[in-house]
Amino acid sequence: MRTARISPARRFFLLHLPMALIVLFAIGPYLWMLITSLKPESTLFSANRSLLPDVVTLENYVRLFSRTGFLRNLGHSLVVASGAVVLGLSVSITAAYSFSRYRFRGRRTLMLTFLLINMFPVVLLIIPLFIIMKHLQLLDTHAGLILAHSTFAIPFATWMMISYFNAVPRSLDEAAQVDGCRPFGAMLRVVLPVTLPGIIATGIYIFITSWNEYLYASVLAGQDVRVLTVAVQTLIGEYEIAWGLLTGGGVVGALPVTLLFMLIQKRLIAGMTQGAVKG
Amino acid sequence: MSAVSLRNVFKSYDSTLVIHGVNLEIHDGEFIVFVGPSGCGKSTLMRMVAGLEDITAGEILIDGQVVNDLPPRDRDIAMVFQDYALYPNKTVFENMAFGLRLRKTPESEIRASVQAAAATLQIEHLFDRLPKALSGGQRQRVAMGRAIVRQPKVFLFDEPLSNLDALLRNQVRAEIKKLHHRLKGTTIYVTHDQVEAMTLADRIVVLRAGVIVQVGTPDEIYHQPRHRFVAGFTGSPPMNFVDASVVSDNGQVMLNLVSDHRLPLPETLSRAVEERVGDEVEFGIRPENLHLANSEPPADWPKLSLKVELIEPMGAENLVHFALCKNSLVGRFGNHVRPAPGTLIDVVLDPTKMHLFDKQSGETLNRF
Ligand SMILES: Nc1ncnc2c1ncn2[C@@H]1O[C@H](COP(=O)(O)OP(=O)(O)O)[C@@H](O)[C@H]1O
Ligand SMILES: [Mg+2]
Question: Between the CA of residue B199 and those of B156, B189, B255, what are the distances in Å?
């Protein structure tokens, strides 16, 4: 095969420029948010405003943490997202392991159901969920939100974990069983350590979706348990939008997710290359 | 008492039957090889002994105890897998120690056992490595080390050499045999390679489509095949087969080979088929039992005049392909035998090494 030799100019117009535009389009709003959050609120609407701040200030952040209950909102988000990770992982790991390792009646149907659930818009579920939560007195509690987030986190996480487990040869479980493990022990002591990168990736995925979720968080909770997404939204008032606080809250909220995503990305690649058992 | 007994064992997946009633007694310390073409059920049969597959019907006994309902960990077996199945995140030492740790063996004992097993296989220098840092041959050794460290009642090997290159395969094969002489553990070894079966086995179990076709020592399997399938599966190149019919010529029972070659039969064979005059049979003879008429074979051996098709020099010997109507016959001769292709030469057949098989059932008509 011949490798095409492309001139640097063509390369720039065909590859680098379009990519730069796409990236700019994608992160532009975030950059704007970050820049805005660093400007003094008073300059936001002044006549001689500019794109880049003349003075960089953290006053929005200081106000955010001192005046509003933002720290508490962060705490709620953390509790809910972590709870969703723990619940979601323990259910999806065991479910995915069975799907991957055992052939039982209704296996395919069940797997398809898991897939289908992912295709429904979450809005459809919200009314039944509201009624269920009300009866269980779980409205406006951490447990309620964790359960609600699990309804979409678990199916997707299960599918993710199935593919990670399928990448582990079954002979590994069998070797463990011959060596003296019970089936559950084989999963725990041999298969899980091998799939650890995948488990971490799945856990972070659950964390991110739960952390970013707004609809359930605002309908099924919002008073006692007001998570970050809901709190940020309340900064948009009827007559006035507190842009400084809003962008500051957005940045703080996006920070952990961004960091986790950078982590997951490395892990995902590690997971792909680590699967080599023989060869 | 047998180390392992299979009693009328059946296995089906959903509605397809893959093992059709297998009976087998494996003696203490015996090296048994399951051999057969791919898909014949060798692995399934071994995995039932291991407890990794349910037994659909019948009984499997290990050391006199019915193990049908025992999980693998309670069967006191060890297994070497085709892909080795080393635990990727454990070091070589921990791979070997894992089984002992699960059995709550004291640390000092673990150390001694792993050390001893590793010394046997010369892998002590690899203790701290992870499997991914090992070559194929080293992984194979570690997998064997993991099996022998527990000193189980039965060793199970599922095609352990199939991922090694040819040279290494021969070397490890010899080592497995040495290891068995040393440890004398009852062993079941699965392979599709008849050379492995012949070289390693005390007894070979030839399987076809979930049925045992023959059980015997390598010599029995090679020299007294009970079935055309066994004869065609062993030897390289395998036995020659020629369609033939039994005819009576002036009261003497003879064979009519495809191209109207008349072949007189030895005493034992002609008596075996005298009731089958007119029947279609299959005549079989191994390549090494064809001889040149001008060497010094006994004068009464039947002679055929055959056209040379091609010669395959193998170094120590030459394989000569003869045309016999549509069939071809392969003869194995010394490397000085180099007839030109297209020439006719006289070949004699060793009458004591002739085989006859029923055309329909494939069963042997010889009386061993
Ligand atoms: N899990 C399974 N489900 C259905 N059929 C299977 C399964 N495992 C093996 N088989 C079938 O059983 C037969 C024997 O398989 P196997 O024992 O692996 O053959 P071998 O090891 O001799 O190559 C094959 O026809 C295979 O298709
Ligand atoms: Mg197999």
Answer: 17, 12, 34
Farthest CA pair distance, chain B: 82
Query: Do B295 and B330 belong to one domain?
Result: yes
Say what the pTM is: 0.85
- How many domains, chain B? 2
Q: What angle do CA B124, B125, B128 make, to 5 degrees?
A: 95
- List residues bridging with B328 in a β-sheet: B323
Provide the CATH number for the domain formed by A60-274 in this structure.
1.10.3720.10
Tell me: do B184 and B259 sit in the same domain.
no
The C-alpha R_g of chain A, in whole angstroms, comes to 24
Q: Which ligand is nearest to the CA of B160?
A: 2
Digit-coded pLDDT (tens) for A60-91: 888 888 878 888 999 999 999 999 999 999 99
Contact map slice: A 189-208 vs B, CB within 8 A = 190, 193-194
The domain limits of chain A are 60-274
Quick check: CB of B47 below 6 Å from ligand 1? no
- Point out which residues pair with B246 in neighbouring strands: B255
DSSP-derived pairing of the beta strands B203-208 and B31-35: parallel
Write the residue in A178, A180, A276 that is nearest to B103 by C-beta: A180
The lowest-confidence range among A13-17, A27-31, A204-208, A241-245 is A241-245
Q: Which residues in B lie closer than 8 A to residue A274 (C-beta atoms)?
A: 88
* CB nearest B72 (choices: A172, A178, A277): A178
Look at residues B193, B217, B233 and tell me which one is the last residue of a structural domain: B233
Ligand 1 proximity of B5 Cβ (cutoff 6 Å): no
